[in-house]
Specification:
The chain has five helices and seven strands. By secondary structure, it is α+β, with helices and mostly antiparallel strands. The chain is globular and about 40 Å long.
Length: about 130
């Protein structure tokens, strides 16, 4: 992952400006950790569109993606996967990362299983070269 973008993303996750949600990038005014990255991409001038896909639950998709990074954001951030997967140095195998009792091979799953934005920010800093 691009280290400069990671630094900005971590700062945004720790800022307390965004409410955390699960299951979608953006739902009812809350964000998955990857949704926060999508918003950062928009702020940085990357062409990403927001579209409401479920008005009742207030779910928003970015470039048609409701729960994974759209390709343009993944490429901009130089991430290896659209779910924030952790890969070994050869980028061949997924690594499992743990936060307390929660473990997963991707940021999306850590978010959905209850890791806080602060915990996810710590993981991003520790594994920036594996994302």
């Amino acid at each position: 992952m691009n280290s400069e973008i990671a630094t900005k993303w971590v700062a945004e996750l720790r800022s307390g400006k965004s409410t955390q949600t699960t299951g979608n990038l953006n739902k009812a005014g809350g964000y998955c950790c990857l949704g926060v990255l999508c918003e950062l991409a928009i702020e940085e001038g990357i062409e990403v569109t927001r579209k409401t896909i479920d008005p009742f639950y207030q779910k928003i998709a970015y470039n048609g993606e409701p729960s994974a990074l759209p390709p343009v954001v993944q490429e901009w951030a130089q991430m290896l996967s659209n779910l924030g997967g952790f890969y070994n140095q050869d980028n061949e195998e997924l690594l499992v990362v743990a936060v307390g009792d929660i473990s997963s091979d991707c940021l999306s799953s850590l978010n959905d299983r209850g890791a806080t934005f602060h915990e996810i920010a710590d993981i991003i800093e520790a594994y920036v070269d594996n994302l």
